[in-house]
C-alpha cells in the first residue's frame, strides 16, 4: 500500500520560502508524476505542480515564478519550495501520486504564513 | 485554463436516497475527468477516474458518466459516510490541472 507523508515547518514568515518534503513508502517512485496540491482554509483545491521520475517538472502558471519541485530518488522523497510567500499562501499542502488522476494522497500539512 | 463548474453548491439528501452531482468543463476534456470525496480534516479520496471507472475499493453505489464537457457523479443510495464534499478534476489540458469548486452533500 503506497503511503505519502508531508513534513516541514507549520509557520513561515512573509517574504520567506516555504519548504516541504513528501516521503513515499510502500511503492516505487518510478513511472509516476509526484504532485503538490494546496487548499486554503475553507476553500477548494489548487494544483501547484508535479515532478516526474525523469526529473521533468510542470507548474501552475499562476505560481510558476515562485515554485520549485524536485525529486530525490535515493531517499524516495520529493520536495516543494515556494518563495516570497504571503498570507495568501496559507493553506493545507498535500502531496499526491498522479497516474492520470491523483490516486494516493498524503494526509496534508497546514502551513500558516504570519510574522 | 479550463474552468470546471460544479452544481449544485450544496445538495441536501436523505439517507437511502439518490444523489446526482454535475460537473461542467469550459472546453472538452475528453474522458480525463476524476471525482474525489473529501471529509472534514481529511485528504481527498479518489472515487472515479476516466470519467466512469471506479477506483480500487470504491463501492458500486458510486458511478460516473459523461464525456467532453458534461459529467455526472451519482451515488445511488446515500449512506451516512457519504456526506462530504465532492470535487471533480480535469487532467486533459495542462497546465494546470483544474478542480471544480466542490459540491457539499449534506443530510436533509
Overview of this protein structure:
- The complex is a heterodimer of chains A (115) and B (108).
- By secondary structure, chain A is mainly beta.
- Chain A contains no helices and eleven strands.
- Chain A has strands at residues 3-7, 11-12, 18-25, 33-39, 46-52, 57-59, 67-72, 77-82, 91-99, 101-105, 109-113.
- In chain A, the strands form two sheets. In chain A, strands 2, 4, 5, 6, 9, 10 and 11 form a seven-stranded mixed beta sheet that branches.
- Chain A is globular, with a radius of gyration of 13 Å.
- The termini of chain A are far apart.
- The model of chain A has no long low-confidence stretch (mean pLDDT 95).
- By secondary structure, chain B is mainly β.
- Chain B has strands at 4-7, 10-13, 19-25, 33-38, 45-49, 53-54, 62-67, 70-75, 85-90, 98-99, 103-107.
- In chain B, strands 2, 4, 5, 6, 9, 10 and 11 form a seven-stranded mixed beta sheet that branches. In chain B, strands 1-3-8-7 form a four-stranded antiparallel beta sheet, with no helix packed on it.
- Classes of the chains: A mainly beta (115), B mainly beta (108).
- The interface between A and B is medium-sized, with 20 and 24 residues.
Number of H- or I-type helical stretches of chain B = 0
Largest sheet of chain B: 7 strands, mixed
Please tally the β strands of chain A and state the result.
11
What's the gyration radius of chain B in Å? 13 Å
Largest interchain contact:
A-B, 20 and 24 residues
What share of residues are in beta strands of chain B?
over 45%
Structural class of chain B: mainly beta
On the 0 to 100 scale, the average pLDDT of chain B is 96
Amino acid at each position: 500500500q503506497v503511503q505519502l507523508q508531508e513534513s516541514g515547518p507549520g509557520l513561515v514568515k512573509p517574504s520567506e520560502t516555504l519548504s516541504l518534503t513528501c516521503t513515499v513508502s510502500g511503492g516505487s517512485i518510478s513511472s509516476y508524476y509526484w504532485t503538490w496540491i494546496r487548499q486554503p482554509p475553507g476553500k477548494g483545491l489548487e494544483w501547484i505542480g508535479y515532478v516526474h521520475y525523469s526529473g521533468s517538472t510542470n507548474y501552475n502558471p499562476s505560481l510558476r515564478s515562485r515554485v520549485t519541485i524536485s525529486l530525490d530518488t535515493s531517499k524516495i522523497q520529493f520536495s516543494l519550495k515556494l518563495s516570497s510567500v504571503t498570507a495568501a499562501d496559507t493553506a493545507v499542502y498535500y502531496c499526491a501520486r498522479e497516474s492520470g488522476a491523483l490516486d494516493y494522497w498524503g494526509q496534508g500539512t497546514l502551513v500558516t504564513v504570519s510574522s | 485554463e479550463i474552468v470546471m463548474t460544479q452544481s449544485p453548491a450544496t445538495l441536501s439528501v436523505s439517507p437511502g436516497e439518490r444523489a446526482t452531482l454535475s460537473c461542467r468543463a469550459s472546453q472538452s476534456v475528453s474522458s480525463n475527468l476524476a471525482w474525489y470525496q473529501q471529509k472534514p480534516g481529511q485528504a481527498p479520496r479518489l472515487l472515479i477516474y476516466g470519467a466512469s471507472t471506479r477506483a480500487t475499493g470504491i463501492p458500486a453505489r458510486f458511478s460516473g458518466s459523461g464525456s467532453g464537457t458534461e459529467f455526472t457523479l451519482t451515488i445511488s443510495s446515500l449512506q451516512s459516510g457519504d456526506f462530504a464534499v465532492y470535487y471533480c478534476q480535469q487532467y486533459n489540458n495542462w497546465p494546470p490541472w483544474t478542480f471544480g469548486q466542490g459540491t457539499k452533500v449534506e443530510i436533509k
